[in-house]
Amino acid sequence: MATVLKSENIKKKFFQPTEFEVLKGLDFEVMEGEFFSITGKSGCGKSTLLYILSTMDTDYEGTLHIKGEQLTGKKQNVLSAFRNEHLGFVFQFHFLLPEFTALKNVMLPALKLGRYSEEEIEHRAIEKLRMVGMDEFALKHANKLSGGQQQRVAIARALVNDPAIIMGDEPTGNLDKANSMMVFDIFKQLAKENNQTIITVTHDLDFANGSDRIMEMEDGKILEIAPPKEASPYL
Amino acid sequence: MNWKLAFNIAVTHLLTKKKQSIVAMLGVTFGISMFIIMISFMTGVNEFTEDMAMDNTPHIHIYKPLEIKDEKIIEANRSIGEDDWYVVTHQKPKNELSKIKNGLTLMQRLERMPEVKGVAPQLSTQVFYNNGPVKIPGNIYGIDVQRQAELFSLDKKMDVGDLNDLLKGSDVIIMGKGLAKTMGVHVGDRVNATTPEGGNINLKVVGIFSFGIASMDQTQSYAKLATVQKMMLKDPSYVTDLNVKMKDVNKAKALAQSLANQDGDLKFEDWEAANQSLLAGTQIRNIMTFVVCFTLLVVAGFGIYNIMNMNIINKMKDIAILKATGFQGSDVTGIFMLQSVMIGIAGAFLGLFIGFFFSFLLSRTPFPAGEFFRIDTFPVNFNPVHYIIGIFFGFLTTLFAGWFPSRKAAKVDPVAIIRG
Predict the structure, then answer these.
(1) Which CATH number do you get for residue A169?
(2) Which of A106, B240, B259, B308 has a 20 to 30 Å separation from A30 between CA atoms?
(3) A56 to chain B: which residues are within 8 Å by CB?
(4) Is A95 touching B (CB cutoff 8 A)?
């Protein structure tokens, strides 16, 4: 299996309120088609790490490679284009654009990429919505959907450009058991069938135990990277 | 940058916040409509006063000035040696005729010039109108009726009677409205006039005119050239003034200058020199109009700026999502700039329409101008250029007002928003 993401000695400092090193030099690799979970207590820096991996946070030391390309030091516009094409995000809070329909929300990143015609994008977006079981709500406005429904639409949005990596920041943090299980199943399927890489930060141990490998963090350092030791009820 | 997508998003944003969009738009609408109303009215007034003055103002007024020559008479005598000295106290002007030498030839020469529209000869004399025992001072102008009508539209200033009636008799005049009123004269009555040289003549009033300028309407009368020449006991080539109208007003000054260089004996006065106070008034009004309109547009611009700023603060989360999913700073700027510009264009067009509507109403509103003014509604100028300026400025202010908030939106750090 090929390496899709490589982190070399990534360090980050916060200067507010006082100088504080959140990440103290992280080295790890994530493989293609891998379901990779990052866990740890609050404040251990796991979310901070995810935003560095997502290329949105550029203020760090060390280097980041995704798909063999060095992204550290690249310009914002280049990174935006890269995110658009190769990365998908699912956040803890659903973060859909409330003025738009579910379908339009899913279509927007694809329209931005402009790889396909508008009809084709619509077709693909409906396909992604069907995959998360939301196709019948396609024309509903985002703010009319329930939390779980919104999260599924957000996943469809993350998938629309067929990204190499899908990143989730506590994607089930705000969901009940049934919805969490559904999100988990979708991620699992993506990794297994589409060979897409999943990287999630999570508190949910059951969720993490269902993944291929778990990276446990403490105080800005990697404690251990290993396959789960307990069986997950999600599987 | 994908303009179609940006436009799509911008329109959706505007339509979901209809009330806010309309309020922002009305700011521009108000600014532009006030601009149109103000400028239409102000330029209307300017044009009216200018027309009123310019209609009977020649572009170049040629006359023979009565002035004391610097050259002392005694100086002409070359036999005086350099060491001699002389004193002349209280030198008087020569008894010169105020006649323009070869006036009619000069007139024909001027009329052949391509930039000259026409020349009207004039002969003026002071008179006393005898109204019973009271003598009222005034002027009688001898004119070439046809030229005066053509160049100074005197025929359009007639209140009673017809200008051409002047041609039908010999001792006939038309009289200013104010003067006729003071004398209690009506068309068909006869008046006596006395010239400074002592001549007395009995004249028949065949018409009443009014310029709308009290000082003229209360002192002036017009007659044929021949009538006034007869009154003054002068020959038929005797004219004292030549009034030139140019095809292009702005060339008057240059022509007056070059004519003055050719002929030092005559005075060539261009209209700008003669109407400086009027021009200053026009200029001040123009400046005021533009200052007020500019202020209105700036206020409208601040309105848009505020609303766009609020809009962007409300949309922080959306901006963060767009950027997280791969939209660039320039895309975000584009989305918000488009919103601002759409508000601006829609507001400006509505403003033009409302501005036109109200200036139209104003142009139909009766204006109690008193008996001297020749208008009965407010003077309003419908100049398409003002409407183009309105659109242009509406567009420009929204562009500026939208630019700063949009730049701010482009700089939103998605991480800070998404992490909360």
Answers:
(1) 3.40.50.300
(2) A106
(3) 323-324, 414-415, 418
(4) yes
- Does residue A125 belong to any structural domain of this protein? no
Q: What is the CA radius of gyration of chain A?
A: 17
Answer whether residue A126 is part of any domain: no
With CA atoms as reference, report the closest residue to A122 among A140, A137, A110: A110
**Any domain includes A210:** yes
A159, with CB counted inside 10 A (0-12, 13-18, 19+), is buried
Q: What is the least distance, in Å, from the CA of B301 to any CA of chain A?
A: 26
Quote the minimal CA–CA distance from A85 to chain B in Å: 8
Q: Give chain B positions within 8 Å (CB) of A108.
A: 5, 9, 322, 325
CB of A53 closer than 8 Å to CB of A26: no
Structure token digits, residue A125 = 């977006």
Domain that holds residue A32: 3-95+147-226
Q: Does A77 touch chain B (CB under 8 A)?
A: yes
Residue type at B287 in one-letter notation:
I
Co-location of B106 and B206 in the same domain: yes
Any domain includes B75: no
Assess whether B145 and B174 both reside in one domain.
yes
pLDDT tens across the length of chain B (420 residues): 678 888 988 898 888 888 888 888 888 888 888 888 888 888 888 888 777 777 777 888 888 887 666 666 666 666 666 777 777 777 776 666 677 877 788 888 888 888 888 888 888 888 998 877 878 889 999 888 888 888 888 887 888 888 888 888 888 899 988 888 888 888 888 888 888 888 788 888 999 988 877 888 888 899 988 888 888 888 888 888 888 888 877 788 888 888 888 877 788 888 777 777 777 887 888 888 888 878 877 887 787 788 888 888 888 888 888 888 888 888 999 999 998 889 888 988 999 999 999 999 988 888 776 655 667 788 888 889 889 988 888 888 888 888 888 888 888 888 888 876
The domain of B115 spans: 60-69+96-271
Boundary residue ending a domain (B271, B289, B315):
B271
Question: Is residue A144 within 8 angstroms of chain B, CB to CB?
Answer: no
Whether residue A51 lies within 8 A of chain B, CB to CB, comes out as yes
Interchain contact, A77 vs B328, CB within 8 Å: yes
Within 8 A by CB and 6+ apart from B397, the residues are B28, B31, B297, B298, B300, B301, B304, B344
Domain count, chain B: 2
Contact B200, B207 (CB under 8 A): no
Residues of A within 8 A of B318 (CB-CB) are 97-99
CB-CB neighbors (< 8 A) of A156 in chain B: none
Tell me the shortest Cα–Cα distance from B309 to chain A, in angstroms. 18
A55 touches chain B (CB under 8 A): no
| Structure tokens given for A38 | 């990052």
Check whether residue B327 and residue B190 sit in a common domain: no
Q: Give the pair of three-digit tokens for residue B144.
A: 């070439």
Domains in chain A, number: 1
Same domain membership, residue B250 and residue B117: yes
**Would residue B135 count as lying in a domain?**
yes
- CB under 8 Å to A155, separation ≥6 — which residues? A90, A132, A166, A171, A183, A186
Co-location of B293 and B265 in the same domain: no
From CA A88, how far away is CA A184, in angstroms rounded? 16
**Domain end residue (candidates: B223, B243, B271):** B271
**In this structure, is residue B149 part of a structural domain?**
yes
pTM (global) more than 0.80: no
ipTM of the complex: 0.88
